[in-house]
Task: structure prediction
Amino acid sequence: MGDTFIRHIALLGFEKRFVPSQHYVYMFLVKWQDLSEKVVYRKFTEIYELHKLLKEMFPIEAGDINPQNRIIPHLPAPRWFDGQRAAESRQGTLTEYCNALMSLPVKISRCPHLLDFFKVRPDDLKLPTDSQTKKPETYLVPKDNNSVSDITGPIILQTYRAIADFEKTSGSQMALATGDVVDVVEKSWWFCQTKTKRGWVPASYLEPLDSPDESEDPEPNYEGEPYVTIKAYTAEMEDEVSLQEGEAIEVIHKLLDGWWVIRKDDITGYFPSMYLQKSGQDVAHAQRQIKSRGAPPRRSSIRNAHSIHQRSRKRLSQDTYRRNSVRYLQQRRRPGRPGPQSAASPLGEQRESERAKPQPAVPPRPSADLILHRCSESTKRKLASEV
Result:
């Protein structure tokens, strides 16, 4: 709930492009308040224009009136000719600049011009066509880079492994073979890359290397967040929900595999997150973004999946979601009752069960003679001298 804002901006690296002529663009991973993560591409000249606009909008914070009051970070002007060495050397500067922007007062860090600048544009979703003779060259920030970016924000891409073969069905997707290891750039339909290719892959075809569980999955929020469906979906499994376009629902668990748990009245179930838009936001823009993309497949629908982990992922059942959701709604409808936290989450159930367990009996204190009999010789001598 609340206004739209950016939680973090991470510089992933830069691309060397050759169409229409050779130029460089920087790759940013933008993390929004609703836990979504988007990859955007911006030229340094565009970033510098934003910098000049912020200085014009906030002259006091830019130090134009009194240099001692400046809090807007400095950014060097573009050079007449920028080569690869210049593009690479700017990465540290841009990382520090973005971190400084996010730490500015809300009136600057959440101003409409800055938010619009980092929103996804149509060009950000375009991938090189097969007809291009020379594909873009991608240069990622090194994982062993000890710059400020490694300390202030999580910019290192996460590595996942394919559990089954995936055949691409469009030019923007990327084919995978079982066992392929990829770096994940964006999560929903996940935007992945290897050393030789990049593209969209369903999250259900990937698993973390160190554990079957997704470490970034948030906890359920049974209070719910208001969303609107921007595309109709017909359930294909028992634990999914069928909805028409334009229906108002509440999201109670935002999972990173592209399927969120939603609540419609007292009914809960999985629904494709890409078919949802936060209430009060631009629906038409979101509908244009998903026009050519379908819902990602569920993990349970994949045949011949091969995991390297011995146990399966931990997931709450829909019965658990439904039971905890109903319990929360009942508490919310009864004003003056105790807070719903313990009843609204599985953690509350765990605490109740812990309180119900009988506590072990405390043994009686031994007698003074028994203590004296069991203590060491040095303790006996010390007690005897005190007496």
